Amino acid sequence: MSLRLRALEPEDAAIMLQWENDRDGWQYSDTVAPLSGHQVREYIANYDADPFSAGQLRQVLTDESGVALGLVDIFDLSAFHAHAFVGLYVATERRREGLGRASIELLKEYAFNTLGLRCLAALIYPDNIPSVRLFESVGFKQSGRLPNWRRKGLTFSDVLLYTLTNNTHH
What's the pTM value of the predicted model, to 2 decimals? Predict the structure, then answer.
């Protein structure tokens, strides 16, 4: 299957609304309330696709026929330090097909070769074993642990800091 990353389009509003309101994924993000269709349409309409001015970039993962399969995010991007955090969401019904790995590989290629970043990072809950395995499988290494870093329900949880450095650019 041939996959690619593309910019957000107005037609993505419905699927993005579904994905953003997937309550199972909220525990891994900062989402605490459902979004409205209006909010998602406004987000897409006003989206700043320049990652250096916006400090972030959101792209849609699609198959060869253009079907949206998930989202990838670059955020907290620092042009000066040439690093950013990454995140991803794969449609629930398409998980366990290798799409997470493929999307991170595409994201790495874009971040390192197009944006010129040197280091990517991800924060992962220790009990999110599928994400730990996924990021390790594409070369990320655990670089640290942040105690009680994120709220998870009514308690706080540690997160693991995973990083990947592109050593081909100095």
Answer: 0.89
